[in-house]
Amino acid sequence: MSRIRVKLPTHLRRLAQVDGEVTLDVAEPSTVGAVLDALEERYPVLRGAIRDHGTRRRRAFVRFFACEQDLSHEPPDTTLPDGVTRGSEPFLVVGAMAGG
Amino acid sequence: MSGVRVLVGTRKGAFVLTADGTRTDWEVQGPFFPGWEIYHVAASPADPDRIWASQSGGWFGQQIQRSDDGGRTWNAVGNDFSYATVPGTHQWYDGTPHPWEFARVWHLEPAANDPDTVYAGVEDAALFRSVDGGQSWSELPGLREHGSGPHWQPGAGGMCLHTILPDPRDSDRMLVAISAAGVFRTDDGGKTWRPTNRGLVSEGIPDPDAEVGHCVHKLALHPAQPETVFMQKHWDVMRSDDGGQNWYDIGGDLPTDFGFVVDVHAHEPETVYVLPITSDLEHFPYEGKLRVFRSRTGGHEWEPLTQGLPQQHCYVNVLRDAMSVDGLDECGVYFGTTGGQVYASADAGDSWAPIVRDLPAVLSVQVQTLP
Question: What residues in A contact B57, CB-CB < 8 Å?
Fold first, then answer.
């Protein structure tokens, strides 16, 4: 089991009613999909806000970064970088940059 | 003395404006859900403390928020608006087939007698219902599957179901309106639907008097006279005297009959309000003068209501869900603008004053008359 730090954007922190990062226990090997599953399990209000309810596909304006890598387009079974699984770096859920 | 609560949805959050029956001194709360688009905020007629809000955004999708204490605190409830069946395609703006995709909830219609039941009109057009306080939502697919769905098309704002009018005398009967498909009616509690657009004429579709395809912007009725339905169409202000089955033009002497809002006086079923907008290409008040028009004769003859409203250099819009009336003895009328003003009249429209002037663009105004 890995303890994964997850950093959410402001809108999702407010929805989940959390301050700062959240820490999740994720079974090894820890993958992008497993982190999102654990996140939605802990905070059901986030279901549908990061991934589509039905298809489970990432919403178009949401991105996933970790250890300076863009994991947004990687398949859900992609293993997280070592820095994230060791807890030295957070897994970032990011609202795509856009003005307005 | 009873009072009113004006529930305001904007491009960047929700606001709750409260006053006593004099409607002169206002308390402003908000923004709630700052940064989110709030397409509609609506209160339950069955429980004045229960308020619903549609919270959405391009980044993180749709949320439904519920307050059980009159808007002071909120909790997210269910947000899964999956279509009941594979939705297929509708027409895109250029007439080509386009996949049906959920985008957002435009309008919430709480049931009159049950605080746990609420309807939701969504884009791409469909009607959903929750009977468990918003925890889960089920589509009433008979509407989308009426058979004409492949011919529906989006208006400029999207292919939205924006009006839900339950018949106050018959729980099986309901009207809904979709832009741009038209009006649909059920007489069996939502199982089956039929288009009721006879009399509508629209130049933007190949067959101007087609059964479906009309860009209906808003409907309104008076609960004591539900067979009479008023419509602001893309162009044309229309009226039906048979529950939507047949429509006729009541634009009369309006300076322009384009617009978005229409509403009915709380105590006078033949007193109607519209707010003319210049044209489909010029979404601002005619001649730069913000004027509500009132007919006391159920249409045809309209008087401009201007006292307290800007009569020069005004180029805001008033969107389809942004007008409402209260039920106090002297009927109050309210509307919000894309410039962020919410105007109130405590004398049925004779005079107006802004409650607030600098909110984000207003998407919806719903007034709750407090006991």
Answer: 11
Residue B204's pLDDT band (cuts 50, 70, 90): confident
Residue to substitute from B79, B80, B83, B101, interface A, most A β-carbons within 10 A? B79
Amino acid at A32: V
B103 in any annotated domain: yes
Instruction: Give the side-chain half-sphere CA count within 13 A for B158.
Output: 18
pLDDT digits (tens, 9 = 90+) for B331-367: 999 999 999 999 999 999 999 999 999 999 999 999 9
CB contact under 8 A, B57 and A54: no
The answer to whether the CB atoms of A61 and B35 lie below 8 A apart is: no
Please indicate, yes or no, if residue B39 is contained in any of the structural domains: yes
What is the residue range of B46's domain? 32-320
C-alpha to C-alpha distance for B330 and B317, rounded to whole angstroms = 26
Smallest Cα–Cα separation from B275: which of B301, B294, B299? B294
pLDDT-based confidence at A99, cuts 50/70/90?
Answer: low
Task: Answer whether residue B343 is part of any domain.
Answer: no
Instruction: State the total domains in chain B.
Output: 1
Name the residue among B59, B62, B81 with its Cβ closest to that of A11. B59
Tokens encoding B308? 């307290």
Q: Among candidates B254, B259, B257, which has minimal Cα distance to B305?
A: B254
Measure the CA–CA gap between B224 and B73, rounded to whole angstroms: 34
Query: By the CB < 8 Å criterion, does B58 face chain A?
Result: yes
Indicate whether B371 pLDDT > 90.
no
> Could you tell me whether strands B61-67 and B229-233 are parallel, antiparallel, or unpaired per DSSP bridges?
unpaired
What's the CATH code of the domain at B253? 2.130.10.10
- Cα–Cα distance for residue pair B153/B214, rounded to 1 Å: 9
Residue B195 lies in a domain: yes
Q: What is the mean pLDDT of residues B103-127?
A: 98
Please report, in angstroms and rounded to a whole number, the separation of the first and last CA atoms in chain A. 41
Strand-by-strand arrangement of the B51-57 sheet: B37-43, B51-57, B61-67, B75-76
Contact B163, B109 (CB under 8 A): no
**Chain A to chain B, count of Cβ pairs less than 8 Å apart?**
42
pLDDT tens-digit profile of B295-338? 999 999 999 999 999 999 999 999 999 999 999 999 999 999 99
Give me the half-sphere count of Cα atoms (radius 13 Å) on the Cβ side of residue B254.
30
**Entry pTM:** 0.96
- pLDDT band, very low/low/confident/very high, at A97 (cuts 50, 70, 90): confident
B60 interaction partners in chain A (CB closer than 8 Å)? 11-12, 15, 49-50, 59, 61-62, 95
Q: What is the ipTM of this complex?
A: 0.91
